[in-house]
Amino acid sequence: MPEQPGKNAIEVRGVRKVFGTGENQVAALDTVSVSIRENEFFTLLGPSGCGKTTLLRLIAGFDFPTAGEILLHGQDIAPLPPYKRPVNTVFQSYALFPHMTVAQNIGFGLEMLGKPKAEIEARVAQMLKLVKMEALKARRTSQISGGQQQRVALARALAPQPKVLLLDEPLSALDYKLRKEMQIELKRLQNETGITFIFVTHDQEEALTMSDRIAVMSAGKILQVGTPRDIYDRPAERFVADFIGETNFLPGTVVSKQGGVATVKFASSATISAGYPEGFNPTGEVTLVVRPEHADLVPDPTKGTITGTLSNIVYFGTDTHFHVKLDGDGENFIVRHQNSRSSAVTYETGAKVGIQFEEDAARVLKD
Amino acid sequence: MAEPRVMDIKDQPGFRSIAIICLLVLYIPVLILMIFSLNSGSLVTHWEGVTLKWYGSAFLNQEFHSAAKNTLIISVTATIVSTICATLAAIGMTRVKPWRGLAAAFMVINLPLMVPEIITAVATLSFFALIAGTLGLNFGIGNLILAHTVFCIPFAYMPIRARLEDMDLTLEYAAADLYATPWNAFKRITLPLLVPGIMSGAALAFIVSFDDFTITQLVAGPGQTTLPLYIWNQIRRPMTPEINAISTILLLVSILFVSVSFLIARRRAK
């Protein structure tokens, strides 16, 4: 993928990580390369076991790569122990020191760096203010709530002013409302501190709302790197489309191709033009992906590109999902309508409907 | 209250009576021993009235003093040395990548728990006799300290290892992440969190050393009588309630020691 010129905070070059020996070898990371720019909110997104946490641990220094280099501002840090890397981590379990107060936790990194006492105190006060925990600075970490522990963990990792902050699914233990709050809080902290954030999550919504760029990972490989829009609107592979957001998969046959756009014929013999990723040459039987909100339901089946029978209507508050059993192959197709105060047409299950596609709604992807 | 349990053992028929019988069997002999330490008669089987004179004579008894002194020297030294060894061993066994000899090392450390004590006693005795015979070395009371240290190690080791295994390793990663060298991470994070384990390990080691009889009996040289040996020698003669008084004092010391270390461990664990 083309990289924009600009300073890279972290460059991961051809990194492999193999666990176990002999026949039990498992490659947790299979030759991964990625560049993370300065001041970027970069997210590693993928299902559990995809290698995202392994990559984070390699950058932190808790593990060493089997092969490859990890550059921090151009210097290879892969052989350095964690305590010699200007990189700090927010752990999933927070890992606050239970025998220390909130303030002692936040000051620990600076203390280990041998900073003068006055500087540590000033910096701790500043951090307490940043995460709005001034009132609880003398508390033990066991005497504060989960959300507060999260803030302390953030302050502790930010206090030594690391070059890069690593966050390992830090919001997964919080309830929904608190998680939403912390997402905004994290963005604010990143803006205010100007530190590069590398965020690990399996929550695609979290990744889309917070990140400048996202790397989607699966089975030890990075499948796609791009802005949330890129990833969502122009997924490079079927896995990416499937993992992020809801997607309809439609079988079809490529009839012709011209300038990055293929004409694909459905079983119903209707055709649609669909874009495809660079470097991919779709031929014959392919799978089309269409986001549910990029399709429209029409009451008159003759006006639809494809047709089907409404099998289920699911109300979600903000929007409604219409499940359509397609004529011909009987595949299930979901159309999402945003709900408004006045819905022009009401649908009944069992009705015959047509589905129209917005322009560029369909893409042909590698399986 | 808490959520309903699947089974509460207290609701089982007979639980209460069995529990009471067990407690009685365990503690009635000890209670009788303590009560007769207050007997004004000079027999340990015939009650005559209440007195504290046997405690008075125990405190004035020079043999008891010297036995108590020996016991304390041996127990305290053995406790300190064995707890240090056990702590190092536990760290070495839990903070390494698994290697082939790990199970064997665990066995070796815990062997004293499995070997019948009389075997260890005979072996220790022959070992010291061999050293004395061939090298002409005799460490005096050091022989006993050495022997006690060795068999105290597994007792101190167990709670320390359990505490280390319970400890969240992420805390050590977090310390390293925050620029703590391995030594600093140990000093500032691992060791303070390990203190409750070390305390209970030391308490166990102390109790085991304090009341050891078999090994001490075989290894002890002249003038190295400890409290258990002293009591043993006393009950082979016509017994007076003084022996009950001495035993009660020992018991109270043990209870005090265990309670204190338990309380410290509980406070630290919070």
Helix content of chain A: 10-25%
The CATH superfamily of chain B appears as MetI-like
Please report the first level of CATH classification, the CATH class of chain B. Answer: Mainly Alpha
Structurally, the number of domains of chain B stands at 1
End-to-end gap of chain A: 19 Å
Strand order of the largest sheet of chain A: 6-7-8-3-9-10
* CA radius of gyration of chain A: 25 Å
In CATH's first tier, which class of the largest domain in chain A applies?
Answer: Alpha Beta
- Range of helix content of chain B: over 70%
CATH architecture of the largest domain in chain A: 3-Layer(aba) Sandwich
What is the number of strand segments of chain A?
A: 20
Quick gist of this model?
The complex is a heterodimer of chains A (367) and B (270). Chain A is α+β, with helices and mostly antiparallel strands and 367 residues long. Chain A is built from eight helices and 20 strands.
Helix and strand arrangement:
The complex is a heterodimer of chains A (367) and B (270).
Chain A: E1 8-19, E2 26-37, E3 41-45, H1 52-60, E4 67-72, E5 75-76, E6 87-90, H2 102-112, H3 117-130, H4 146-158, E7 164-168, H5 176-193, E8 196-201, H6 204-210, E9 213-218, E10 221-226, H7 228-233, H8 238-243, E11 248-258, E12 261-265, E13 271-275, E14 285-290, E15 295-298, E16 306-315, E17 319-326, E18 332-338, E19 352-357, E20 362-365
Parallel strand pairs in A: 3-8, 3-9, 6-7, 7-8
Antiparallel strand pairs in A: 1-2, 1-4, 4-5, 9-10, 11-12, 11-14, 12-13, 14-20, 15-19, 16-17, 16-19, 17-18
Chain B: H1 15-36, H2 53-60, H3 62-94, H4 102-114, H5 117-135, H6 141-166, H7 169-177, H8 182-210, H9 214-219, H10 227-235, H11 241-269
Helix pairs in contact in B: 1-11, 2-11, 3-6, 3-8, 4-6, 6-8, 7-8, 8-11, 10-11
